[in-house]
# Entry
Amino acid sequence: MYTLYTALYGNFARINPGVFLRHYHFSYRLLLNSIIGSKRKLYTFECGKLSGVRIFGPKFIPSNLYSDNMQLLVNIDHIATLRNARGEGVPNPAEAAQVCEQFGARGIVFHLREDRRHVNDEDVVRLKKVVQGKLVFEMAATEEMLEICTNTEPQISTLVPESREELTTEGGLKMKKVADHFGSHVIPRLRTFDIESSLFVDPVEEDIRLAAEVGADAVELHTGTYANANPDDKQDELARLKEGADLARSLGLKVNAGHGLNFFNITPLLKAIPYLEDISIGHALISDAVFNGLGNTIRRMAKLIESHNTFPNGT
Ligand code: PXP
# Structure
């Protein structure tokens, strides 16, 4: 039902942004909490969901409601980075993906790099098995990756430039360099397998126009420059992103965003571009999760160790 809705909504909304379907759901837990008071959460439980689709008419939709379609997609590469630091099995990216989805992520992103520095081929197979929402295969458009991607059949492939020397993706695609290849080979091949193509680009007019010309379904705007800008330049970078997003949208492209986003810089972006769709965030979330979980983990281990004290109080 949800997939059907998003498919309908995504396409419908792009054709005519004024008319759209709005999904609503809330759990009985929320309903019960509001009836018996949030302080008594312990006595409530989740027993199901009410959901449905409402159709709104064209004239009465405030444009900010259109942002209903924004979705968090979590990039789990750095779970794999941590796993690889010891070369053992934990933490497992597929397990992390399940937790992310359980707590509100609408999908999972992974970047299979040529050098397999984080996620590896086995992870890809496991992720394909467990991910319930959108699975996004981020990759350089090489023959090897196209082969793995079309065998995996994710919903979306995000195409990025890749260089061995970089620590992370450093900027968007230079579309002029890749346009012919993408238009004649890469995007048609992905489309044969029903895989949506999203091109990672800087908010640069030429790159966005070429993304539309080569037949991409979406652009993912590179938000790294905005994220890393010093306070004096932030507004300018945000304006560049908005201008790029407006252009992409006017060309019929779905507009996604990602790179360097965190709890501090995301709100201005979402407010400035209310029709953004997939928001891809990785490093900041995994980093934040460490500190959200570290205290509990230490308490648990400290208690466990101390519960085995043989000589209490140093006696
Ligand atoms: N989008 C793309 C295309 C990326 O390459 C990355 C980094 O792997 C992200 C989003 C996520 O960036 P971050 O880890 O900084 O949130």
About this structure: The radius of gyration is 22 Å.
